[in-house]
Write a structure and sequence with these properties.
single chain, 133 residues, Rossmann fold, 4 strands
Length: 133
Protein backbone atom coordinates (compact mmCIF):
# COMPACT_ATOMS: atom_id res chain seq x y z
CA UNK A 1 0.00 0.00 0.00
CA UNK A 2 1.57 3.26 -1.07
CA UNK A 3 1.44 6.22 1.24
CA UNK A 4 0.03 9.01 -0.90
CA UNK A 5 -2.08 12.06 -0.27
CA UNK A 6 -5.28 12.36 -2.31
CA UNK A 7 -4.79 14.06 -5.66
CA UNK A 8 -7.60 16.51 -6.20
CA UNK A 9 -7.62 16.02 -9.99
CA UNK A 10 -8.37 12.30 -9.55
CA UNK A 11 -10.58 12.65 -6.50
CA UNK A 12 -12.82 15.46 -7.72
CA UNK A 13 -16.54 14.76 -7.85
CA UNK A 14 -16.58 11.27 -6.38
CA UNK A 15 -19.94 10.88 -4.69
CA UNK A 16 -21.05 7.33 -5.36
CA UNK A 17 -21.33 4.60 -2.75
CA UNK A 18 -18.61 1.95 -2.69
CA UNK A 19 -18.75 -1.30 -0.75
CA UNK A 20 -15.20 -2.02 0.39
CA UNK A 21 -14.48 -5.68 1.17
CA UNK A 22 -11.11 -6.08 2.85
CA UNK A 23 -10.20 -8.55 5.59
CA UNK A 24 -7.15 -6.61 6.80
CA UNK A 25 -8.40 -3.88 9.15
CA UNK A 26 -5.45 -1.52 8.55
CA UNK A 27 -5.71 -1.77 4.75
CA UNK A 28 -9.49 -1.35 4.94
CA UNK A 29 -9.20 1.73 7.17
CA UNK A 30 -6.56 3.32 4.93
CA UNK A 31 -8.56 2.72 1.73
CA UNK A 32 -11.86 3.78 3.29
CA UNK A 33 -10.32 7.04 4.55
CA UNK A 34 -8.70 7.69 1.19
CA UNK A 35 -11.91 7.04 -0.76
CA UNK A 36 -13.90 9.21 1.64
CA UNK A 37 -11.37 12.02 1.14
CA UNK A 38 -12.22 11.70 -2.56
CA UNK A 39 -15.90 12.25 -1.80
CA UNK A 40 -17.17 8.67 -1.95
CA UNK A 41 -19.53 7.16 0.58
CA UNK A 42 -17.86 3.96 1.76
CA UNK A 43 -19.54 0.96 3.35
CA UNK A 44 -17.03 -1.45 4.91
CA UNK A 45 -17.09 -5.23 5.18
CA UNK A 46 -14.44 -7.55 6.61
CA UNK A 47 -15.80 -10.72 4.98
CA UNK A 48 -17.76 -11.81 1.93
CA UNK A 49 -20.63 -12.82 4.22
CA UNK A 50 -20.77 -9.34 5.74
CA UNK A 51 -20.57 -7.75 2.28
CA UNK A 52 -23.43 -9.93 1.05
CA UNK A 53 -25.56 -8.87 4.02
CA UNK A 54 -24.83 -5.23 3.25
CA UNK A 55 -25.74 -5.73 -0.42
CA UNK A 56 -29.00 -7.41 0.52
CA UNK A 57 -30.05 -5.01 3.28
CA UNK A 58 -28.58 -1.61 2.44
CA UNK A 59 -30.76 1.20 1.22
CA UNK A 60 -27.66 2.89 -0.19
CA UNK A 61 -27.38 2.76 -4.00
CA UNK A 62 -24.10 0.84 -4.11
CA UNK A 63 -22.31 1.40 -7.43
CA UNK A 64 -19.00 -0.44 -6.89
CA UNK A 65 -17.88 -3.46 -4.89
CA UNK A 66 -14.16 -3.20 -4.28
CA UNK A 67 -12.26 -5.99 -2.65
CA UNK A 68 -9.46 -8.46 -2.51
CA UNK A 69 -9.81 -11.40 -4.84
CA UNK A 70 -9.48 -14.00 -2.10
CA UNK A 71 -12.69 -12.82 -0.40
CA UNK A 72 -14.37 -11.42 -3.47
CA UNK A 73 -14.55 -14.35 -5.91
CA UNK A 74 -17.77 -15.87 -4.63
CA UNK A 75 -19.31 -12.48 -3.95
CA UNK A 76 -18.54 -11.38 -7.52
CA UNK A 77 -20.63 -14.22 -8.90
CA UNK A 78 -23.54 -13.26 -6.66
CA UNK A 79 -23.27 -9.59 -7.71
CA UNK A 80 -23.22 -10.48 -11.42
CA UNK A 81 -26.27 -12.72 -11.02
CA UNK A 82 -28.32 -10.54 -8.67
CA UNK A 83 -27.13 -6.92 -9.03
CA UNK A 84 -25.65 -6.71 -12.54
CA UNK A 85 -25.55 -2.90 -12.52
CA UNK A 86 -23.04 -2.91 -9.66
CA UNK A 87 -19.45 -2.85 -10.92
CA UNK A 88 -16.91 -5.16 -9.29
CA UNK A 89 -13.23 -4.38 -8.87
CA UNK A 90 -11.01 -7.07 -7.37
CA UNK A 91 -7.31 -6.92 -6.62
CA UNK A 92 -4.93 -9.78 -6.01
CA UNK A 93 -1.33 -10.30 -5.08
CA UNK A 94 -0.28 -13.15 -7.36
CA UNK A 95 -0.65 -12.65 -11.10
CA UNK A 96 -2.71 -15.85 -11.50
CA UNK A 97 -5.26 -14.76 -8.91
CA UNK A 98 -5.45 -11.36 -10.58
CA UNK A 99 -6.25 -13.02 -13.91
CA UNK A 100 -8.88 -15.24 -12.29
CA UNK A 101 -10.43 -12.11 -10.77
CA UNK A 102 -10.65 -10.62 -14.25
CA UNK A 103 -12.96 -13.45 -15.31
CA UNK A 104 -15.48 -12.41 -12.64
CA UNK A 105 -15.29 -8.68 -13.25
CA UNK A 106 -16.33 -6.34 -16.03
CA UNK A 107 -12.76 -5.90 -17.34
CA UNK A 108 -9.49 -6.98 -15.94
CA UNK A 109 -7.21 -7.71 -14.43
CA UNK A 110 -8.09 -4.78 -12.22
CA UNK A 111 -5.18 -4.46 -9.94
CA UNK A 112 -2.60 -5.85 -7.67
CA UNK A 113 -2.04 -5.63 -3.98
CA UNK A 114 -0.68 -3.68 -2.31
CA UNK A 115 -3.14 -1.09 -3.52
CA UNK A 116 -2.07 2.13 -5.18
CA UNK A 117 -4.88 4.47 -4.02
CA UNK A 118 -4.60 6.87 -6.95
CA UNK A 119 -4.76 4.08 -9.54
CA UNK A 120 -7.66 2.60 -7.62
CA UNK A 121 -9.65 5.83 -7.87
CA UNK A 122 -8.88 5.99 -11.60
CA UNK A 123 -10.28 2.47 -12.02
CA UNK A 124 -13.37 3.36 -9.99
CA UNK A 125 -14.01 6.43 -12.15
CA UNK A 126 -13.48 4.36 -15.30
CA UNK A 127 -15.96 1.69 -14.20
CA UNK A 128 -18.55 4.26 -13.16
CA UNK A 129 -18.20 6.04 -16.51
CA UNK A 130 -18.93 2.77 -18.33
CA UNK A 131 -22.18 2.40 -16.40
CA UNK A 132 -23.38 5.96 -17.01
CA UNK A 133 -26.40 6.17 -19.29
Amino acid sequence: MKNAAPRTDICARGEETILLLERDVMTRAFLADYLRSCGYRVLEAHSAAEALTILQESFEPIRIVLGDAENGFKLSGWVKANRPKIKVILAANPERASQAAADLCDVGPHGKRPYDPQLLVQRIRSQLAKGAD
